[in-house]
Here is the input.
Amino acid sequence: MEFVIVTGMSGAGKSMALKYLEDIGYFCVDNLPPALLPTFIDICDKNSSEMEKVALGIDIRGGKLFDGLIHFIDSEYDSDVKFKVVFLDADDTTLIKRYKETRRSHPLSKKGTIQSGIDAERELLKPMKNKAHYIIDTTNMLTRTLKARINEMFLTNMDYNSMITTVMSFGFKYGIPPEADLVFDVRFLPNPFYIPELRNMTGNDDAVRDFVMKSDEAKEFSKKLTDMTEFLIPNYVKEGKNNLVIAFGCTGGKHRSVTFANLLYDHLKKNNYSALISHRDIEKDGKR
Here is the structure.
């Protein structure tokens, strides 16, 4: 039986992750007290023919009972269940914005500010985050991207030891993605923005891609990039890394960065790597 524990920061998207797991056939339970985990798993084991895949949402709403989850993870539970932990996170600014939009109070900020609740929760969840098999940062993630990430992890039945590589484009004018492991600055290449007929296009358009890739520098960079990633990815996997984010930045995140993110993503998929694509700033204004 497959058993997935979904946990993480309040407001980071745990409920949506559970919903997407349910959509792909997982029996989902939200907010079960961790102390009941052994009993719950025993019940699932006895009904394994009907509950082959189970996902459980656990967070700090359980208060002190949350410590039971860490104890359970640390203990050698006598079961045939193979469980993995998915930890959802987002930066403080994003979490505060989400709480204000929904007009909800943070579970740990009943006597203080939202920020104080987030600070307390981060401290409480540190041990759990360190034990997570997968960490998903939803700071700049659209719901459809989260769904794709969940599907990539669990619907395709990929080996849990495999690594998911997210290839991202972004604009430096909007800041470097905090979740990025590797950042490549492609502003050394000619900018299509200054070509009137290309200005309102993006790196998803053939005309922009052809313009970006026509220079010898772009071709050489592409070659060196693929050589390096083919060297790095197997070694990251060997060292136990589960998630890798490779980000390409240009000025606005619409032309050069999108072109190279697409090129690397296509290369990874062609070579059977588990990969996702994200264009963070492609829909933002075209001003430079």
About this structure: The chain has two domains: 2-155, 164-279.
